[in-house]
Amino acid sequence: MPATDLLVIINPLSGTLPLAQKEALRTYIVAEAQRQGFQPEIITTTHAGHATELAAQAARSGIRRVLVMGGDGTVNETARALRKTATALGIIPMGSGNGLARHLGIPMNPQKAIQKAISGRPVLIDSAELNELPFFCTAGLGFEAYVAHEFAKQPVRGLQTYVRTTYQAFWNYQPASYLINNVPAGPLFSLTIANAAQFGNNAWIAPNANVSDGLLDVCLIRPFPGHMVAMIGWQLFNRTLNQSSYWASQPLRQATLAKVTDDAPDLDGPDTLLAHADGEPVLLPGNECTVRVLPASLLVLL
Ligand SMILES: Nc1ncnc2c1ncn2[C@@H]1O[C@H](COP(=O)(O)OP(=O)(O)OP(=O)(O)O)[C@@H](O)[C@H]1O
Q: Which residue range or ranges hold the DAGKc domain (predicted)?
């Protein structure tokens, strides 16, 4: 039997599609890949981190296409193993946010995304690191990090839980002050490091971010009065946040981000920094972190 030349990694827990529909998609992937002359292999993940192991093995074996069916977390786990390899990533979005897929214009319809991933052309994009943690879409501190941590505590996932968690977090949140490359940035509502332009769900935090420019957009939102919530929300989803006087952005290759520690109260905890990388909550040691771009480091199938 010929060797596999197309690996498909499926996180069975991602998203909210019923099992029967996920099974039908598996069958569709195999049929479509074979129709295009590939010998596909499909592997379902059994634990967190499994996608990284599978993708790394595929890259070592010389497989040139690895498709991932999952949310931003599984996309991140797969993509991190494919950085700086000749193996290209195909995304079949199955999560609640799908930030990188949406930014790249990958269809949200699974069959269309499958076709694109199987027959698409490999295109180089940038990736990034928060300390040593790889990310591909956005990472951040402040409110968005607080929401990521609060969301992770919820027993049920999904958009409805996310909206409720965000609403509750908004009333508890206390902005801290930050330094960006040792320059005081003042108290900030949020501090986003954007490789791609959106968090997911078409929430465009960095309207001008370009995944292939060799730069990160370091975007901040200053604290704003309660009556501005609707306006800022509207601009976020309308991709016009750059018109807000509370928003600013600077393109950087790398940056040191530090929290000013004399602010009180502090939601991060002593000598730790709440952060997120591609929406996954991370707790960083100390009050400082670094971010850097890895230009042209990942091939994606588009
Ligand atoms: N078999 C598994 N059992 C438990 N966890 C898994 C398994 N496979 C993958 N994971 C973990 O599930 C996490 C979340 O998955 P993913 O982000 O794909 O889905 P999601 O949570 O539905 O999407 P979103 O983040 O968009 O809401 C991943 O970071 C991965 O570590």
A: 1-134
| Cβ atoms of 217 and 251 closer than 8 Å | yes
Nearest to 186 by CA among 255, 108, 277, 248: 248
46 lines ligand 1 (CB under 6 A): yes
Q: How far apart are CA 277 and CA 134, in angstroms?
A: 8
Token readout for 83 is: 């950085």
Cα(96) to centroid(ligand 1), Å:
11
Tokens standing for residue 248: 């600013």
Token pair recorded at residue 155? 């027993």
Which residue lies with its CA nearest to atom 29 of ligand 1?
73
Q: For 60-154, where are the E strands, in sequence order?
A: 65-70, 88-93, 122-130, 133-135, 138-142
Q: Ligand 1 centre from 184 Cα, in Å?
A: 36
Other CB atoms within 10 Å distance of the CB of residue 168? 12
**pLDDT tens, per residue, the chain with 302 residues:** 458 999 999 999 988 888 899 899 999 999 999 999 999 999 999 999 999 999 999 999 999 999 999 999 999 999 999 999 999 999 999 998 999 999 999 999 999 999 999 999 999 999 999 999 999 999 999 999 999 999 999 988 777 888 899 999 998 899 999 999 999 999 999 999 999 999 999 999 999 999 999 999 999 999 999 999 999 999 999 999 999 999 999 999 999 999 997 655 566 666 889 999 999 999 999 999 999 999 999 999 99
**CA–CA distance, 77 with 172 (Å, rounded to integer):** 31
Note the ipTM here. Answer: 0.95
Domains and CATH numbers, the chain: 6-120 (3.40.50.10330), 135-294 (2.60.200.40)
Nearest CA to ligand 1 atom 5: 48
Helix (H) or strand (E) holding 284: strand 280-285
